[in-house]
Design brief:
A 6-stranded mixed sheet has the order 1-2-3-6-4-5, covered by helices on one side. The chain contains 2 helices and 6 strands. The protein is of the alpha+beta class. The chain is globular, with a radius of gyration of 14 Å. It has helices at residues 48-65, 86-96, and strands at 4-6, 21-23, 27-30, 73-80, 103-108, 118-125. Helices cover 23% and strands 25% of the residues.
Length: 126
């Protein structure tokens, strides 16, 4: 099996010992993506909607670096620190994913790195 690390300068660098994504022969596995603005290297103050948009822009940049796009997503996992944000995130999500939607899980967690309120990872077809 081919295993190729993917790195996009249009997405934030990993904040730990991991790759932005790993491509196999047919699939792309992204790491969890935060709302870090790659231009400033931090999560700017903002609403959950603004953070969700940044997360999906970051995911799209990583997908593009691997030669795919969000329309080829198979499975998406959304981590939220407050499930009350679920509806707002769904509204943003629908700007980046269309029917037939990928399979998805949404999970509330106690905390995320860097004090983030949302983190998303995905598996995409290449």
């Amino acid at each position: 099996m081919n295993r190729t690390p993917i790195q996009s300068p249009k997405a934030p660098a990993a904040i730990g010992p991991y790759s932005q994504a790993i491509a196999t022969d047919t699939l792309l596995f992204t790491s969890g993506t935060l709302a870090i603005d790659p231009k400033i290297g931090t999560i700017p103050e903002g609403t959950i909607e603004e953070h969700a948009h940044q997360v999906f822009r970051n995911l799209a940049a990583v997908a593009e670096a691997a030669g795919t796009n969000l329309s080829r997503a198979i499975k998406v996992t959304v981590y939220l620190t407050d499930m009350a944000d679920f509806n707002q995130v769904n509204a943003v999500y629908s700007h980046y994913f269309q029917q037939p939607y990928p399979a998805r899980s949404a999970v509330e967690v106690a905390a995320l790195p860097l004090g983030a309120d949302i983190e998303v990872e995905a598996v995409l077809a290449l």
